[in-house]
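Hi Y.,

Following your request, here is the sequence exactly as I used it, all 275 residues.
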Amino acid sequence: MVSIGIIQAQTDSTIRPGVIPVNYPVINSTSSLSGEFVLTPSRAFIDKSFEEGKQSMFIFYQNIMTEPDSMESKVKQISKEVQIPNSLIIPIPAGQTARKGDIVLTSWQSGSGMQRAMVVDDKNQDSPLVHYLDISWDNPAKNKEGVPIGQMTELLPQNTFVVLTQEWQAGRTVIYKDGNNDKMGILIHSSGDQVLLLAWSYLVVVPREKCFPVIPLTEINKDDVVYIPLYGNYKQATVTRVDIEKGRVWVNVEFAGKQKEVVASVTDIVSKLPE
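Below is the corresponding structure, written out as tokens. Let me know if you'd prefer a different format.
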């Protein structure tokens, strides 16, 4: 079954190293090296979950690894160093390059928070121009140039991204079975037969047998019938428009008895649901 339960509320002094606020194994090591960028939640979010005995929302921010270690590692968050459980550390290896059409895992450079992004220009492959895929296309906020933030492009600095190429790679969209529902999560970590996902900003532990990583479709056309996540649950939809360069797909989907136009990301779309 899907586990979203919190472990018993604890004070900071009783939290064992590497333990996180859901029932997930302590991870002995991390592949991240000192000085490399990582994506992690705030230590304050972790502590709040333990103190209150219920989950806080978990937003993964760009930070810097300072001292990798067993069970948990020292990470620089803004101006201070904190200990983060290894299971909640997503490494961003230095020296990565990307080509146009690649999907990368990164963070929102002019804002904050983990993002998947489509490379739209690879003139500088170690600092590509990208379009973020996890910001709503219709977000009304605008950048300093007056472009809606869901439609803008930004250059990624060197060493701040990793290309998503592996099926079980952190940052990959995962469809997971929860009863009769097909739900969406983002892979954070996997260990043995357990998978740690971020689903609607909350940590969820799911048996691996109930998880199905989403490999982006190589071709999507107008009038195709596809499945997209809508408020966390996968729904059938019909494609009305495709901007493959930016990795965005417009679909019509039924919601509350009416047809609704939604702009989905190629990271999340499938042609059929897992059985």
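The first helix runs from residue 43 to 52.

Thanks again,
Q.
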